[in-house]
Amino acid sequence: MSLRTRLSVLTIGLLLALLVAGGIFQYFALGQYLFRDGAQALGQRYDQTLRDLALRGRACAAAGQLASGTGAGTTTGTLGSRISPLISGGQITTAAADCIVRAAGGPLVTAAVIDRGGGVVSSAPDGVSPPALPASDYTSALSGGAKSYYLVGSGSDEQLVVLRVLGSRVGRRLGIVQLSQATSALRQTQTRLLTILAIATGALILLAVLLLPLLVRRALSPLHRVTEASAELAAGNFTKRVDEPPARDELGKLARSFNQMAEAVQRGFAIRAESEAGMRHFVGDASHELRTPLTTLQGQLDLLERGAADDPAARQESLRSMHREVKRMSSLVEDLLTLTRLEGTGAVADKTREPVDLDALISDTVDEQSVRAPSQRVEIESASPGQARTLGDPDQLRRAILNLANNAVSHAPGGIHTWRSSADQNRVVVSLSDEGPGIPPEALPRLFDRFYRVPTAGLSGNGSGNGSGLGLAIVRSIVEAHGGSVEASSGPNGATVTMRLPRVTAPS
Fold it and tell me: Same structural domain for residues 383 and 466?
């Protein structure tokens, strides 16, 4: 069974249960209303009867000095058909009782006067026995606890009974006036309501059976679209999205969540594809870089096998060449391991972090370079001495500065290399400028890529000639691992590489 069918059946069942429950409630509520209304009509009939008797000056009103009461109850006793005779001034006379019941009774209403002992003093119409209530009901009525109405009998013999206390003008309770009528008419009205409710319920159920599947289908259409989009996403269509409904209900949230998930999946696969493409490019570049020294080693070994080993000079030249290529491969492998370690962690371990004075690292690097390249002129300009401090790994930062210096010496010899440092509240800026030929504009976006080389001189790429082609790539990885950034610019007077790193204040 599909979700739509289950929802339709569930909704129809719930609607049917609500209609049945509502119909039952209305059936009984209407019954109570009809009985209360009938009892009120009987009470009004009795009150009107007493008023008419008083106005017409009937003998029954004078005989017992009657007055209308609002109390209820009777003493214990049994109803009998015998009409009690006039006993004393404390009892209602038969004449007065006959006058009351004949005035209050009628073809559809039975009236009876019950004395305090529970006996029937008089009843009307003639030949009709009044319904008998339990003695406790009369006793309760005489003591003021009468109910609004009573039901006696069952089926077609059911009677609606109302009790009223009959009292004298001096406040003495003489007995009870009982009015009753058949409930068949009220029950018929109640039954007609039940029939109407049954017909209406059936019509509503039929209408629900016809319309609910359409309404459920329309309500679940966003879910159906999400299902279709999920299938397309699983099939590889990562661009598939669903229209988000304006409503903020569960289906709207589901559509938005699906689109967010699809966006994340698409982004993840794009990153994976980019990573795989970068890995293929990296393997190709590494293979290409290793092919040259391996070819040189293979050639030198072949040369030695063909007899060059017997010539001391040729042998020595071959050994120097192989040593040079092995050193080049070692440098390349070391740089590759460094890049792999930096890009694999993506950050600097907390245990290696410490405040680092970049001005001191630059000074040490310049001293080291003065030994390797004594003819190179280097200048240091610090806008805020002692303030260029960052938090990081001093060995890695030294490696980044040294790589910049080596790159400048290798590709922009001569002229002046100028180191500049400055610090503001949040960051440290370190730059190295040369007076070389600069960098072509088209090479700037790829300057820090692995194995990228620019054929011109200057701070142009990761090197050329005998370099590994990874120097500036290592610089970028180190700087980014420390939460900074690096960029290069070029002009007619040379090139500049600038590093920006988070600043840490010096301890007081």
Answer: yes
Q: From CA 11, how far away is CA 216, in angstroms rounded?
A: 9
d(CA 459, CA 444): 10
Residues 409-457 have pLDDT tens digits of 887 887 889 999 998 888 999 999 988 888 888 888 888 887 777 765 4
Q: What is the pTM of this model?
A: 0.46
For 367, other C-beta atoms within 10 Å of its C-beta total: 10
Q: Classify residue 110: in a domain, yes or no.
A: yes
* Whole-angstrom distance, CA of residue 93 vs CA of residue 256: 89
Q: How far apart are CA 53 and CA 365, in angstroms?
A: 130
Rounded Cα–Cα distance for residues 283 and 278 (Å): 8
Q: Please count the structural domains in the chain.
A: 3
Residues 459 and 408 sit within 8 Å (Cβ to Cβ): yes
Q: Can you tell me the distance from the alpha carbon of 34 to that of 186, in angstroms, rounded to the nearest whole number? A: 6
Q: Are 450 and 282 in contact (CB under 8 A)?
A: yes
What's the token pair of residue 300? 């030198």
Strand pairing category for 159-168 and 173-182: antiparallel
What's the pLDDT score for residue 492?
81
Is the link from the previous residue into 502 a cis peptide, with omega within 30 of 0?
Answer: no
Same domain, yes or no: 337 and 358:
no
Task: Give yes or no for residue 235 having a pLDDT over 70.
Answer: yes
Same domain, 20 and 149: yes
Q: Cα(417)–Cα(419) distance, rounded to whole angstroms? A: 7
Which two three-digit tokens encode residue 230? Answer: 């999920």
| Separation of CA 500 from chain center | 41
Length of the chain: 508
Instruction: Calculate the CA 446 to chain-centre distance.
Output: 44
Q: Give me the domain span that covers residue 45.
A: 3-189
Alpha-carbon distance 158 to 183, whole Å?
A: 6
Does 261 share its domain with 399?
no
Structure tokens at 392: 């990081």
Partner residues linked to 500 by β-bridges: 429, 485
Which pLDDT band, with edges at 50, 70 and 90, does 169 fall under? low
Strands (E), 170-233: 173-182
In this structure, the answer to whether residues 21 and 128 fall within a common structural domain is: yes
CB 389 within 8 A of CB 426: no
